[in-house]
Design a protein that fits this description.
Blueprint: E1 2-8, H1 14-24, E2 38-46, E3 49-57, E4 62-69, H2 72-96, E5 129-130, H3 132-142, E6 146-151, E7 156-162, E8 168-172
Parallel strand pairs: 1-2, 5-6
Antiparallel strand pairs: 2-3, 3-4, 6-7, 7-8
Helix pairs in contact: 1-2
Length: about 170
């Protein structure tokens, strides 16, 4: 696996590089040709927390995880565990749909860690046309992290959401 490590507001020492590489090697056993994969690792500092982002694009899907912790090494351990869980979940999901073609990762025997992802609640909402500022106010009043509304400014359905950095984002449908 080709590993690209870069730091934002932090110097990447040899100890950090070696630790990240040592942990990412654990994931190679899940892939048939790990030498063809690239892992992009970003280490950054924000509000006293060490944040590590790992992105591994494959042919079928993209693995991505982000963890934050006061201790960088603990964050690295957590992000590797999350990525390993994603690989197992994707493998189980693809196998459940009886995909016949050979997948990107090797067919290994796992203890059944299968999670049933089912829709457990369905909600119908009446959304009145409103502007983005009013939608922001409504979302804050409800205490939600996202809000679906008919956007009169863009003449479409929009989802307003709160980002991890405390700012807001909007997704418009066409």
């Amino acid at each position: 696996m080709n590993i690209n490590i870069r730091g934002d507001k932090i110097e990447i020492t040899d100890a950090i590089k070696n630790y990240v590489k040592e942990k990412l090697v654990r994931l190679e056993k899940y892939f048939e040709e790990p030498s063809k994969l690239d892992a992009h690792v970003l280490v950054r500092v924000q509000n006293g927390n060490e944040i590590i982002e790992v992105t591994i694009p494959t042919n079928k899907y993209t693995l991505r995880a982000e963890e934050k912790n006061a201790d960088l090494y603990a964050a690295i351990d957590k992000v590797i565990d999350v990525l390993e869980r994603q690989i197992r979940k994707n493998k189980t999901r693809l196998n459940r749909h009886k995909v016949v073609e050979v997948m990107d990762f090797a067919m290994l025997d796992f203890e059944s860690e299968e999670e049933d992802t089912k829709i457990v609640k369905r909600k119908t909402i009446d959304s009145k046309p409103m502007g983005e500022e009013e939608a922001l106010l409504q979302m804050d009043l409800l205490g939600h992290d996202f809000y679906l509304f008919k956007n009169v400014d863009e003449d479409c359905l929009s989802v307003l959401y709160k980002r991890k950095d405390g700012q807001y984002g909007i997704i418009n449908s066409k």
